[in-house]
Design goal:
- By secondary structure, the protein is of the alpha/beta class.
- It is built from ten helices and 14 strands.
- The protein folds into two domains: 1-136 and 307-324, HUPs (Rossmann fold, 3-Layer(aba) Sandwich); 148-304, Rossmann fold (3-Layer(aba) Sandwich), CATH 3.40.50.
- Required for resistance to DNA-damaging agents.
């Protein structure tokens, strides 16, 4: 199944090869269009006061023109993949301009390298973190040293939530993770955590026997939920492993990811719908602060980005043009 139709890759990082390569491969396999994008930071006003050669906006345009020429060079290097390739350079905040381009042009996947890594190898970065909050389409953040295919993929789902939004998001997570696992011939690890609500507070009043019965009943419900979710095609696959464990969501997800040495995690990152989504869910926030593998982050249906349409992109021969 062709999952992606219009892919955007952010080529503004220093180590961009893995992101461009992965995006080009996905575009080719899905017969999707591909856009290479870069974003120029606005020139600080204090530098404008010190500049006598040119005005700040003129300097920004010169930098944007240089970035666009580099994107054209990259596009020419991958022109043999047989898909439509466009280039785009915007001026402004990187995460905002990427998101605006996604909204204006209906991109269904953003691929970029992780912004940076700490000495311990943990993923972090302001652009990536912002995209996880405001970008409405799936965002794939790749470790700069990524090479080849993924081997161990973790799909983190929430089987304790019974509302339809979370049920649909669980299905999306599995479908995206499974399609990548098939492509890369990787093992897919489906991770779900469960725990009895307020168990420690209930125990002194209800007693251990009653609490144990409640625990077994709750476990049975979440087991039924995951069995229902893991129907065909997942039930027929021999490379899917299920990890249903008692405990907090963040700790269970991290433990499994470490145990299987995951190189890609697929999870939902925003739990608010119907309003501007600027809050990452608690579980995702905790996991992402300590992640050391690549990430594919999905939003629930109904997510509304705080970013509005009608940004601007750099055109070398004219003034910045509105996105339409």
């Amino acid at each position: 199944m062709k999952r992606y139709h219009n892919i955007l890759v952010y080529a503004g990082t220093q180590h961009r090869d893995s992101a461009v390569t992965r995006a080009a491969q996905l575009a080719m396999e899905n017969h999707a269009s591909l856009t290479l994008m870069d974003v120029v930071k606005p020139m600080p006003s204090v530098l404008g006061l010190m500049t006598e050669v040119a005005k700040p906006d003129e300097i920004e345009r010169l930098v944007a023109a240089d970035r666009k020429r580099r994107l054209m060079e990259i596009a020419s290097e991958i022109s043999d993949i047989g898909v439509q390739i466009d280039v785009c350079v915007a001026i402004g905040d990187a995460a905002t301009e990427i998101t605006r381009r996604v909204i204006d042009d209906d991109h269904d996947l953003v691929v970029k390298n992780a912004d940076a890594f700490s000495p311990t190898g943990r993923l972090f970065g302001s652009i990536g973190a912002s995209l996880l909050r405001i970008c409405p389409c799936p965002v794939m953040l790749l470790k700069p040293q990524l090479h080849g295919e993924f081997d161990q993929i973790v799909a983190a789902i929430d089987v304790e939530s019974t509302d339809q939004v979370h049920r649909d998001l669980n299905r999306q997570i599995l479908e995206h993770a499974y399609s990548i696992a098939l492509r890369d011939k990787a093992t897919l690890h489906v991770v779900a955590a469960w725990q009895l609500w307020m168990e420690d507070a209930i125990l002194p009043h209800a007693g251990s026997v009653k609490v144990e019965a409640m625990r077994r009943e709750h476990h049975s419900r979440v087991q039924s939920a995951i069995d229902e979710l893991l129907q065909a095609p997942f039930a027929d696959a021999d490379d899917v492993r299920v990890h249903l464990r008692q405990g907090g969501g963040a700790s269970v997800i991290r433990d499994v990811a470490d145990e299987v040495e995951a190189d890609l995690m697929v999870m939902g990152t925003v739990c608010r719908t119907g309003i501007a989504g600027v809050l990452i869910g608690n579980t995702a926030e905790t996991v992402l602060s300590d992640i050391n593998c690549s990430l594919l982050a999905l939003k629930p249906d109904g997510f509304q980005s705080p970013v509005q349409r009608s940004g601007s992109v750099f055109n070398e021969e004219d003034e910045p043009l509105p996105l339409v």
